[in-house]
Specification:
DNA polymerase, domain 1; hpI Integrase, Chain A; 3-stranded antiparallel sheet
Amino acid sequence: MRNLVERFEDEWLKDRGYAARTLVEIQFKLERYRQDLGDQLIGHLDVLTVAEYLDGFSNNAYTKHRGLLIQIFAFAAAKGLAERNVAELTLIKKEAEKKRQRHTLAGLMMIVDADTTPIWLKRAIRLALASLQRRDDIVSWLKSSVDLENNTIKVSPGKTQGYDKPIHLQIKMGQTLREVVSECMRSPVASPYLIHYRPKSRKREQIAAKDHWTSVTPNYRKRSINPTYPMTR
């Protein structure tokens, strides 16, 4: 199975034109398959085995993993590595409706104060609270936008970049905003971004899918702040 995943990634995935963040999500799933199923023989992965594996995931995660495994086994069948697409024969589930709930200030501060929260996430939350910028703009904010000498920072909301006249602002930093921005600037990790981190591993495919090896993708930040996901990954 490990060889199948490698071939799927090299021969099929790279030519699909996925967005960078989608590609990273797929590669995280593929890495899990390497760890969970890597030593299994493809012929031993029958419908029962794949169904039991998928049953280990929650409803929405089940549908996403099932969809990717269907693609992998379709590739395997097309290459003569499997007789049939066993993932396609597993139970189809409907994704549960997402229930969104806003974070409270108290809840956010619990995350900031927790010892298990990575330092980059603490800074991201504080930066968001002090600047009121969107998630995507927080993680793409460049250090070059900061002028500590004049106490200003440039703001270019990403949602306006498709406008005929994109919005670009230069604002004075209050004390709270300046403190967290200065902390980001002093980080020993060499990164062009205010919010950044040092990955535990630098896999080639993951680095290639990002603008910079230290950058934080919006979805990675979202999962990290969601209490249903581990705070470190």
